[in-house]
Amino acid sequence: MTEKCWIDTQAMMSIMAKAKEKYPLETGGVLIGYHKGQDVIITDIIGPGHGAIHEQFYFEGDTDWQKIKMDEIYDATDGRLRYLGDWHSHPDGPINASPLDLEAMKIVRDAPEALTPEPLMLIIGGDFSKIWFEVWELADSNLRSLPIKEFQFDRECLNA
């Protein structure tokens, strides 16, 4: 079971910028990184893609475009960085995972090609005068919140 979620500062800033750009509509994307011991480390994010659907209470990413981007990162890092889950915004809303969010996580968990038995869902909420983040993990069919720690990811560590 995961103890903490570490997220790169640049990835966090990118999420905030993409959410602010689409506000008051939902937006989202993909979380990329790796597991280390009992922690999960988010190093990168992939945005929504040009074909994404953004609505006030709904978001659907351009999954074909996102898959191409995920494959590029996976290949460039010899599989060390991979898909961990998804992120999306709840403009002016709570950062709780909705029933639709939970269903999306179950689909990821049950998809063998995702290689993600305990998917994450990062939700950003607020109106940008104040914002909140929450990272949810689906483990053993239970949804739980993870403590978030921010850090500066050093890509050189992948070559060590």
In CATH, the architecture is 3-Layer(aba) Sandwich
Name the structural class. Answer: alpha/beta
| Assigned CATH superfamily | Cytidine Deaminase, domain 2
Number of strands: 10
Kindly report the CATH topology: Cytidine Deaminase, domain 2
> What is the helix content?
25-40%
Structurally, how many domains make up the residues?
1
Strands of the widest sheet, in order across it, are 9-8-7-6-2-3-1-10
CATH uppermost class: Alpha Beta
The shape is globular
Kindly report the oligomeric state of this protein.
single chain
Number of H/I helices: 3
End-to-end separation in angstroms reads: 26 Å
Give the amount of beta strand, in percent.
35-45%
In sequence order, what are the helices and strands, one letter per element?
Answer: EHEEEEHEHEEEE
The biggest beta sheet, please? Answer: 8 strands, mixed
Our Rg estimate from Cα atoms comes to 15 Å
Q: Could you report the average pLDDT, rounded to the nearest whole number? A: 93
Uncertain runs:
none
Overview of this protein structure:
By secondary structure, the protein is α/β, with parallel strands linked by helices. It has a single domain (4-150), classed as Cytidine Deaminase, domain 2 (3-Layer(aba) Sandwich), CATH 3.40.140.10. It has 3 helices and 10 strands. The strands form 2 sheets. The chain has an 8-stranded mixed β-sheet. The radius of gyration is 15 Å and the shape is globular. The mean pLDDT is 93.
Structure at a glance:
With 160 residues, the chain is of the alpha/beta class. It has helices at residues 9-22, 63-76, 99-110; strands at 4-8, 28-36, 39-46, 53-55, 58-60, 82-91, 120-126, 131-139, 142-146, 148-151. A hairpin with a 2-residue loop joins β8 and β9.
